[in-house]
């Protein structure tokens, strides 16, 4: 149940501020998972939490700042989880690596959506400090994942690992959108299959293309 502005105004202690921030972030996540990042406004988030937009601005200056914060956390969680899954694979298991990436991304629709919107708009209406925090977090997450991949594919260089991660996340950003069209477009594809040339199945596409990228990088090192 939404709380009123008075409930938020009475809080004064640091832990209460942290609770407010957590409530704002949780509302933003929930709304984005339901409607997509692009469709959520600051007013939507404030209304879901049960506070006035001007009160929310005491915690986050823009919707972009909220979602960049969420993206920072999502990158960290993904790197931790996926690196653990990769650690269970055998040396040289390219198909296993590809499947692990695809499965982990399919479980994180909000992260895939954020891959799209971070460079398009989330980095454009925030402070430089917020951008730096996000970039450092993403760099750390990429390093964790490239190290995990290179444990399994030791002939790859660090640059190769970075290229692989850039390729996978870029593919995930675009393919997630293609694989999850809005309802009216999905209905169009069903009624007119000839128009569904861009419709893809996300997991199989990411698996196949990740394997292709990894094999290409390995072939380059074998020359």
From TrEMBL:
<dbReference type="InterPro" id="IPR041483">
    <property type="entry name" value="TetR_C_34"/>
</dbReference>
<protein>
    <submittedName>
        <fullName>AcrR family transcriptional regulator</fullName>
    </submittedName>
</protein>
<dbReference type="Pfam" id="PF00440">
    <property type="entry name" value="TetR_N"/>
</dbReference>
<dbReference type="InterPro" id="IPR009057">
    <property type="entry name" value="Homeodomain-like_sf"/>
</dbReference>
<feature type="domain" description="HTH tetR-type">
    <location>
        <begin position="18"/>
        <end position="78"/>
    </location>
</feature>
<dbReference type="InterPro" id="IPR050109">
    <property type="entry name" value="HTH-type_TetR-like_transc_reg"/>
</dbReference>
<keyword id="KW-0238">DNA-binding</keyword>
<dbReference type="Pfam" id="PF17929">
    <property type="entry name" value="TetR_C_34"/>
</dbReference>
<dbReference type="InterPro" id="IPR001647">
    <property type="entry name" value="HTH_TetR"/>
</dbReference>
<feature type="DNA-binding region" description="H-T-H motif">
    <location>
        <begin position="41"/>
        <end position="60"/>
    </location>
</feature>
<dbReference type="GO" id="GO:0003700">
    <property type="term" value="F:DNA-binding transcription factor activity"/>
</dbReference>
<dbReference type="GO" id="GO:0000976">
    <property type="term" value="F:transcription cis-regulatory region binding"/>
</dbReference>
